[in-house]
Amino acid sequence: MTATLAVLALAAAGCGKTSSEASQDDDGGKDKGSGSSSSYKAKGIGLAYDIGGQGDQSFNDAAYAGYTKARKEFKIGGVDMEPGDGESSTDKVQRLEQLARQGYDPVVGVGFVYAPAVQAAAKKFPKTTFGIIDDNTVKADNVVDLVFHEEQGSYLAGVAAAKVSKAKHVGFVGGVDIPLIHKFEAGFVQGVKSVDPKIKIEKRYLTEKPEEGGFSSPDRGQNAASGQIEAGADVIYHAAGLSGQGVIQEAGSQKVWAIGVDSDQYKQKALAKYKQYILGSAFKDVGGAVYDLTKSVVEGKPMKGEQRYDLKSGRVGFSDSNPKYAAMKDVVAAVEKARKDIVGGKVEVKIVP
């Protein structure tokens, strides 16, 4: 990816809309809501996607939902930008700096891979509020770390998986072997074992590093799921971004349960063919976090520091959109009890497997 301002400006035009275009889209700027603050002078929100980009039916799409909601409610513009194949950290820095230079505020990096870029760009544009999702290492007055207790939602997924498994054998597929995804595994395993310590758990990570495609390779996800099903698992939980589509497709094809992640994947159009086999999703409301940050900036009171969302806040949880899941009263009751135990402090969920 050529890191020049001209190319980045062109990319912004191709991957999103400028604030001038925003007034012409959707319902012509006549949408209901509080409207933008009179003190808000920025062009709108700038959103830079993680690996997999928009259309991953999971993490990035969750961020896009919050971006879209904020634009509509506050009647502001926005640009959302895709990552380039094999891009460097320098490319990310220049993407964020370009958004800030063009007048977007807040500017949000979707994913921990943006940490060095947010650190660098925030120093250069101290009057712009930067947000980063899934990282709490960037400390600056104009940076907001939007992080989640993923392990808590994953614990609920583990309880659900253990309760519905007839084979007493479940699986976990992680996109990349890193601490963030270890939190998903840790919570899931603890939740499973809380129901039945004897249940067998298959575990598989697709790659060691993000740049190797662990979050963006549905074929790898499909192969991993196939292997776990062949080994005997009849419920598979993934934390693999776009690769998770392959997990769900394979589970659906083999008529075993899949558990989605980040977004409510039962509702994703791209997965509609397999949705009857999506038991639920351990969601984290990335879109809500993006919306919260944008709202704070629009209202002239930007968030600061670390904002961590958990089950108690409602930004983390287990979706119940599938009527088949809702009909399993004993499973629903077990998951709800687990939720209350965590919120009440009776259960502390591990973050390391």
Give an account of the 3D structure.
It is a single chain. The chain is α/β, with parallel strands linked by helices and 353 residues long. The chain has twelve helices and twelve strands. Helix 4 runs parallel beside helix 5. The longest helix is centred in the middle third of the chain and has 17 residues, at 179-195. The radius of gyration is 20 Å and the shape is globular. The two termini are 37 Å apart.
Write a compact overview of the structure shown.
This protein is α/β, with parallel strands linked by helices and 353 residues long. It is built from 12 helices and 12 strands.
Helix content class: 40-55%
- The count of strands amounts to 12
User: What radius of gyration results from the CA coordinates?
Assistant: 20 Å
Q: What are the low-pLDDT stretches, counting only 5+ consecutive residues below 50?
A: 1-36
How big a fraction of the residues is strand?
A: 15-25%
Helix-strand pattern: HHEHEHEHEEHEHEHEHEEHEEHH
Estimated structural class? alpha/beta
Distance, first to last CA: 37 Å
Q: What's the helix count?
A: 12
Q: Biggest sheet: strands side by side, in what order?
A: 2-1-3-4-5-11
Shape from CA axes?
globular
Q: Please state the average pLDDT score.
A: 89
Question: How would you characterize the largest beta sheet?
Answer: 6 strands, parallel
